[in-house]
């Protein structure tokens, strides 16, 4: 049965990040009367929110989820109906610690609804999480959520953000106009972009549609592509030739690279886990089954390649 909500008071965690900022923008500009929105960020990220302070109808809390008191966190959370987690960590151990603290504090504070920081591929289809600690974290987070039905969760699965592929030069080498990948290049995977997902989440909240998806995964995506198709997109943006470099066709080739950078380069280790998910080719989203996504005016992941400047630098 659909729940009824009279006053929707939302707290966004990680509001200074790429996705969080876009969601704040949409809620502040389009839904001030529908949603009372507050933000929580570490003190060092506070200045990034100055642009929204005058439009915000809630509060800004400076709080470090990893370091500050859980008791203080519970006191902050008590006034909120929905907590939206947009935090992101390169370190999977920090990610698990932070989200465990969030969930436990939400339960103690009697928060009704929670959107976890999934925002990725359909990890439920992966049984073997070897060399995929971020997927393992997602599974542990949902095991914790399922231990207590008091906190009603709604999970957004949106494939891989195309901005993440553009962000790491090991994959998209803008200087050499090259796309480096593992596998055959023909494995299909879903991609989205921050702006479109942010619009969807904002509308899902403002229209109170999230109450229809209690304890459910909500899949969305912009495009289904392959690395070879992605290379074609890059060719259109850059003009001329794009080098498609296969660094290894097998999972063992990629696992070897993952082991090499596990301790020495956490950022690359983070991004190469997305590459492994692509090569495994097991996380395909079956269908989009909600009434909100079709109504969103979308930029589309393909258009995000315009973030590549004339000098070939990803921004």
Describe the structure.
- By secondary structure, the protein is an alpha/beta fold.
- The protein has a domain at 9-160 and 192-221 and 286-301: Rossmann fold, CATH 3.40.50.720.
- Helix content is 34%, strand content 16%.
- The chain contains nine helices and 13 strands.
- Strands 3-2-1-4-5-6-11 form a seven-stranded parallel β-sheet, with helices on both faces.
- Helix 1 crosses helix 6.
- It is globular, with a radius of gyration of 20 Å.
- The relative contact order is 0.14.
- It holds the Pfam family NmrA.
- Residues 9-243 form the NmrA-like domain.
- Keywords: NADP, Oxidoreductase.
How is the topology of this model organized?
Blueprint: E1 9-13, H1 18-30, E2 36-41, E3 60-62, H2 70-77, E4 82-85, H3 92-108, E5 113-115, H4 133-145, E6 152-157, E7 160-161, H5 162-167, E8 172-173, E9 178-181, E10 189-192, H6 194-206, E11 216-219, E12 223-225, H7 227-238, E13 243-246, H8 251-261, H9 266-280
Parallel strand pairs: 1-2, 1-4, 2-3, 4-5, 5-6, 6-11, 7-10, 9-13
Antiparallel strand pairs: 8-9, 10-12
Helix pairs in contact: 1-6, 2-3, 3-4, 8-9
């Amino acid at each position: 049965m659909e729940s009824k909500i009279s006053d929707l008071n939302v707290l966004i965690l990680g509001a200074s990040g790429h996705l969080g900022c876009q969601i704040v923008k949409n809620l502040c500009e389009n839904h001030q009367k529908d949603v009372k929105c507050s933000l929580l960020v570490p003190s060092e990220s506070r200045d990034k929110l100055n642009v929204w302070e005058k439009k915000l109808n809630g509060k800004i809390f400076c709080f470090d989820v990893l370091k500050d008191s859980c008791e203080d966190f519970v006191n902050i959370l008590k006034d909120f109906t929905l907590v939206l987690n947009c935090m992101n960590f390169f370190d999977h151990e920090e990610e698990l610690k932070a989200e465990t603290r969030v969930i436990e504090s939400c339960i103690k504070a009697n928060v009704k609804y929670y959107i976890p920081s999934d925002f990725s591929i359909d990890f439920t289809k992966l049984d073997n999480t070897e060399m995929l600690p971020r997927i393992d974290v997602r599974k542990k987070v949902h095991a914790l959520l399922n231990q207590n039905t008091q906190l009603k969760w709604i999970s957004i699965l949106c494939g891989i953000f195309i901005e993440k592929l553009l962000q790491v030069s090991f994959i998209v080498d803008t200087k050499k106009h090259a796309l480096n990948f593992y596998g055959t290049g023909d494995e299909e995977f879903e991609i989205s972009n921050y702006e479109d997902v942010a619009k969807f989440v904002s509308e899902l909240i403002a229209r109170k549609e999230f109450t229809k998806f209690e304890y459910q995964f909500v899949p969305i995506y912009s495009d289904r592509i392959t690395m070879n198709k992605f290379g074609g997109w890059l060719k259109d943006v850059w003009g001329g030739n794009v080098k498609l470099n296969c660094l290894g066709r097998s999972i063992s080739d990629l696992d070897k690279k993952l082991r090499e950078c596990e301790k020495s380069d956490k950022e690359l280790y983070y991004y190469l886990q997305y590459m492994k998910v692509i090569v495994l080719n097991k996380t395909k989203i079956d269908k989009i089954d909600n009434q909100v996504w079709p109504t969103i005016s979308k930029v589309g992941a393909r258009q995000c390649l315009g973030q590549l400047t004339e000098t070939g630098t990803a921004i």
